[in-house]
Design goal:
This is Lipoprotein. This protein is mostly beta strands. Helix content is 10%, strand content 46%. The strands form six sheets. Strands 12, 13, 14, 17, 22, 23 and 26 form a seven-stranded antiparallel beta sheet that branches. Strands 1, 2, 3, 4, 5 and 8 form a six-stranded antiparallel beta sheet that branches. Strands 7-6-9-10-11 form a five-stranded antiparallel beta sheet, with no helix packed on it.
Length: 342
């Protein structure tokens, strides 16, 4: 699996941030301040070292996006953080919120182990309280403790925005809002391992016949979001199949191109037999090119089968240009099973 996107070097100092917040808030009037700047902090604590009042089942509070995955383990709301409680939580100083506010602390489960499918974007994390926002420096990770000031008697939600879509959980009761239930049913999105395609293809043009070893390599990704394709339709996931193959053969007496049609060359079996919803041909590099086919699949598909039969236009650049080239020995069809783990 690719690495997650957490940047521990950007972690904030809980003590410094909370102390600064307390000083700033003590100078305010009785009117609750606008929470426009970060006043929360993320602190790494050993698993199990902090026990908070409300505990949640990871199945209830888990948020899974293409670039992140987490579950809230526990939460508690305090009228203030006393010196004793600050020591217990691993903070350097107590915290007394202004009128109308209280202190929220919550932990991220250290045992919820789902690897994000992709790592090319950094999601944004914030706490939304009474219409105001407390920005976090990063998406909290397993075992993290998060402390922030929130409005009394108002919903307090952890909101992760991933590729433009929000994922959120209410920290008061553990209820979750999902824009696409397919993400949760999918479990772990990720990469699948596929066998290679290897065959001999015979081509004819005029009075010559050549036999060429043909090879294709597959990379398979299942996710709700893919770069360049945005979000899958509600209730579906994308399966993207990238297959790299040789399109150009050079010989002493011939120069042949075989340009495949990705939409005609590949299908998926995932319950039903599926044709690509989208397909494209990549940039040619040397004698190889990568083709892409994207399919809409049900979220509970833990495995799929690629049905591959290379099909496309044959072109002779050198050696028998005047004769129409054809594939005289068909490229064999191959069915390749891909497991995602689930």
């Amino acid at each position: 699996m690719p690495p997650t996107t957490r940047k521990t070097s950007l972690r904030l100092s809980a003590a410094a941030t909370l102390a600064a917040a307390a000083l700033a808030l003590s100078a305010c009037s009785s009117t609750p301040p606008t929470l426009a700047s970060p006043i929360g902090a993320t602190e790494v604590v050993p698993a199990g070292s902090v026990t908070l009042e409300k505990t949640f089942d990871a199945a209830q509070t888990s948020l899974v996006g293409p670039h992140f995955a987490l579950a809230v383990a526990s939460a508690q709301f305090f009228p203030e953080i006393t010196a004793a409680k600050a020591k217990e939580l691993g903070l350097d100083k107590p915290l007394s919120p202004p009128p109308g506010y209280e202190v929220l602390a919550f932990t991220i489960s250290p045992d919820f182990k789902v690897d994000p499918a992709l790592s090319d974007e950094d999601p944004e994390a914030k706490i939304v309280t009474g219409g105001k926002e407390v920005a976090l420096g990063q998406v909290p990770g397993p075992g993290d403790l998060v402390v922030a000031l929130v409005q009394k008697d108002q919903p307090a939600e952890l909101v992760i925005t991933d590729a433009g879509r929000p994922f959120s959980v209410n920290l008061r009761d553990g209820s979750r809002k999902d824009f696409n239930d397919a993400l949760l049913k999918a479990g772990a999105t990720g990469f699948g391992n596929a066998d290679d395609y290897d065959a001999e293809v015979e081509m004819r043009s005029g009075n010559w016949i050549i036999t060429i070893p043909y090879y294709a390599r597959f990379e398979v990704t299942k996710s709700a979001w893919l770069p360049g394709h945005d979000w899958a339709p509600d209730g579906k996931l994308w399966v993207q199949v990238d297959f790299t193959s040789q399109f150009l053969w050079k010989g002493d007496k011939f120069d042949v191109e075989w340009n495949l049609d990705p939409a005609a060359s590949i299908q998926l079996k995932a319950g039903d037999t599926l044709k690509p919803a989208k397909s494209e041909t990549g940039t040619k590099s040397g004698q190889a090119v990568t083709y892409t086919a994207v399919f809409e699949v049900a979220p509970d598909a833990e495995s799929i089968e690629i049905v591959f039969r290379p099909s496309g236009d044959l072109k002779v650049n050198e050696g028998g240009k005047s004769s129409k080239a054809s594939v005289t020995k068909d490229a064999k069809e191959k069915t390749i099973k891909v497991d995602f783990g689930g």
